[in-house]
Amino acid sequence: MSRVFTTIVARDLRLAARRRVEALLPIAFFLVSISLFPLGVGPEPQTLRQIAPGVVWVCALLAAMLSLTQLYGTDHADGSLEQMLLSDASGWTIAMAKALGHWIVTGLPLTLAAPLFGLLFGLDGRANATLALSLLLGTPILSLLGGLGAALTLGLRSAGVLLILLILPLTIPALIFGAGAVAAVEAGLSTRGHFSLLGALLIASVLLAPLATGAALRIATE
Amino acid sequence: MDAGLRFFTFASPPRFYALSGALLPWLWAATALFAAAGLYIGFFVAPTDATQGDAYRIIFIHVPAAWMSMLLYLVMAFWAAIGWAFNARLASMVARAIAPTGALFTFLALWTGSFWGKPTWGTWWVWDARLTSELILLFLYLGYMALVTAIDDTRRADQAGALLAIVGAVNVPIIYFSVKWWNTLHQGATISLTAAPKMAQTMLTAMLLMTFAFWAYAFAVVFMRTRSIIIERELHTEWVGALTGRVGGRGSRT
Prior knowledge:
Oligomer: heterodimer
Number of domains of chain A: 1
Distance between the termini of chain A: 23 Å
Radius of gyration of chain A: 18 Å
Strand content of chain B: under 5%
Helix content of chain A: over 70%
Order of helices and strands of chain B: HHHHHHHH
Largest sheet of chain A: none
Largest interface: A-B, 19 and 20 residues
Number of helices of chain B: 8
Strand content of chain A: under 5%
Order of helices and strands of chain A: HHHHHHHHH
Helix content of chain B: over 70%
Number of strands of chain A: 0
Structural class of chain A: mainly alpha
């Protein structure tokens, strides 16, 4: 079981390394869309500092969703998805491995790039660290839930938009507590509650989302 | 046909079609009757509220609609799950028929809530826990409907929709308990099964009558929609052929 897991993760990482520009596109989207906000809202430092956590989180959310549409698409097209499902690995293992691969390629770079934008938006050191930590806990949730959306919309004509419509409502709790943690730091409150709830969401997603994704993959390829 | 009444008797589309056809006039009559009585008591008999004036009267639409929006989602998820687990065609059709009605009630609850919020809270909308989670419920309904219509293969559409409905069902308890968990602008529940209601008797009567009206309406509309889905999907069968006047179905050999 663990061999299948590491094989899938290593394969996805190798595929991403071979198509570097394609793998970096979500990050580019993240950077460009964040830079639009100071232009649209206006450059007042006070306003920017206030909206920074929400803006960074929403952009990370959208970047993750956009990059997820093809999570299972190419595997489905070349038949390797069927082979994975036919192997003795459980649906949970496959979905978890795919989500981990996706997170390493998009979620992790997003988390690393976020503090830079925190600085540009005028967040101080502590708030910036909180932002990075909340994204570190939150982006895996996005990859896991997004995997479910990708499996449900596999091979459909309007898969991209549909995935966003299906999955965004489910990611709202992560958004609330992730951005809320930073706002709590700014207000001088404790972030423990926010981080505990984010951690709980992460654990629940790790346990349940791959199960549902596995079931959705079997429905889609039946 | 003569096996008597069993648990799955009405899981057969033709029998369900006949049964729902017989029930429909009664359900519509019940809807009209309960709604007329509820609205009469709500608007003419129930006393004016001491603090909110007459604005509170929207409660007679708002609260039953909000109840129905949550309940219908659970019912939809339940039938979708039954349809998926037992491969029961009719259950999947019922689930699909419930979705638009549930979305309508969710929208109605939000809309009337907004009308109620303006005179009492002074704002059309607040990003309060209960309002936001009810909005998410509307998105879940819309997502379910979008997904099942986007998939051309009926079987896959039903199963994928079932999975999505079950995942989304997590939201319903969050809405229900949001006013307890977060102390927000939206008031807590006034009515519970365990305590004496904190409202005038006539108000309660009107609200319950409206709830019955909404129940009857939901049954009637869901049955009607299920009947059209049955006709659509079973078009090739003989009984639908006989029903629509064509001798034999499209795919039948007669």
